Amino acid sequence: MNQIHFLDISFMYNGSAQVITPVLLQDEHEMILVDCGYPDFLPLLQEAAYKQHLNLGALTKVIVTHHDMDHIGSLAALKRAYPHLEIIAYESEAPYIAGKKTSLRLQQAQSTLDQLSADEKQQAEQFIHFLQSIEPIAVDRTVTNHEHLPWCGGIEIVHTPGHMPGHISLYVTASKMLIAGDAVVIENGRLEIANPAYTLDMQEATRSIRNLLEYDIEQLICYHGGVFQGDIKQALRELIQAYDQI
Predict the structure, then answer these.
(1) Lowest-confidence range among 65-79, 98-112, 115-129, 181-195?
(2) Residue 246 C-alpha from the chain's centroid
(3) What is the CATH number of domain 3-99+136-244?
(4) 59, 102, 185, 237: which could join 224 in a potential S-S bond, CB 3.0 to 4.6 Å?
């Protein structure tokens, strides 16, 4: 029997309250975590799972939507705690997660240093140091666009570049659920593009949202915002229209 669990994790970051929603997919043989939060979030993940009467020791796989710090920060710790689990990511993301290539987010932060005031530069340098502290970990299996994985009712890999070039979302076939990652977020009940300042290619991001209209989505899960309430297709169309007018 296929089950879906939303691990809403509340925390403070830079003085503000935030929530992320990693997802657990489960069937008779697999327990799959999608994204894993910031560094040192392993206890928070374990606690969130425990509240739903789940033990992360049963994890078999982790699928990473992209290599931002809040999605892979605890990946190495998870692998140490549960060495049997398989880490899965999009083919172009694997070198960044493994530390073989410099994080695109780190490159972006470093490229802005010369344009900042002294105070801004100090904050940026702290952010750069934090990004450099993310522990790399090898990816066990890479996936490609439209690849179908046979677990938990069937999972289709949906390449949704824009926020990052190798960003993926997951379409769970049996439940018609889209796990969006950071392809879209929910702000004040509306769908938005995830923090435009951190989206590396806005045109690609908009194109990815347009491609999502091809899917029969009955439930949309955003990493930032959780479960979307409303007409999903209409909300996607309105978001596309908003950015087409810019």
Answers:
(1) 115-129
(2) 26
(3) 3.60.15.10
(4) 185
What's the whole-number mean pLDDT along residues 214-234? 97
**pLDDT > 90 fraction of the chain, expressed in percent and rounded:** 87
Residue type, 28: E
Handedness of CA 190, 195, 200, 202 (dihedral sign): positive
Lookup: tokens for 77: 């710790």
User: To 10 degrees, the CA torsion angle through 148, 32, 48, 28?
Assistant: 110
Assess whether pLDDT exceeds 90 at residue 116.
no
Q: Summarize the confidence of residues 133-151 as an average pLDDT.
A: 98
Instruction: Count CB neighbours of 32 within 10 A.
Output: 22
Distance from chain centroid for Cα 156 = 15
CA 92 → CA 65, 88, 193, 228, distances in Å? 11, 12, 22, 29
* Main-chain phi, psi angles of 85, to 5 degrees: -75, 150
Structure tokens at 85: 């689990």
Predicted structure pTM score: 0.96
